[in-house]
Structures are given as C-alpha cells and as structure tokens.
Amino acid sequence: MPYYVVENWETPMTVLPRMVDSQGRLTLGKPFARQLVTLRVVREGTIEIQIAEAVPAREAWLYKNPEALRAVMEGLEDAKAGRLSAGPDLEAGHKLAEAIED
Q1: Domain parsing of the chain, residue ranges
Q2: Bridge pairing between strands 46-51 and 13-15
Q3: What's the CA gap between 5 and 1, in Å, rounded?
Q4: pLDDT tens-digit profile of 28-46?
C-alpha cells in the first residue's frame, strides 16, 4: 500500500490514502484488524481515527470522576509498594457479635 510522510506540518506523520466504498465503508488494513477504534470529526472533512479500549458501563463512573480515579491509582501504587493498612479487627468484631443478644 503506498504511503507518504508529511514533514512540513508541526508533527511529522505518515499518511495512508484509503478509498471509501459505495457503502460508506473504509478499510484500515492489517495494523487495525480486530481493534476497536473511535472516529472524531476534527472539522468538516477531517476525521481522526484512534485505537480505543472499551470500559464496561458499570465502571465508566470511575473514569468520569478524576478525584476517585486518582484515589484508586494512589491506592494501587501504595499496594504495589507494600504500603498496606491494617485490616479490621475480626476477633473484636466476633466478640461484639457474640455479646449482642438476638
């Protein structure tokens, strides 16, 4: 497949010409095979294609909440570094449960 490199723009890029078929379909070639992509209309006549990953709807809230995402990422880093908090006192909880009358 012919291609050319554009070097006179701010960021050099490889341009891969493609033809849209009569059904409006565009093939991207083997490098994009079986990958989820997003299409973003940058302006009229310009579309940006980007490889993407899907996030389950029940987890999307985390990525929409920067503070929660930061807290989760910090927690993962802490765990990776071995900085763990002491767990709950299960024995004290058991004694309390035993002391409570039904």
Answers
A1: 4-51, 57-99
A2: unpaired
A3: 13
A4: 888 889 999 999 999 998 8
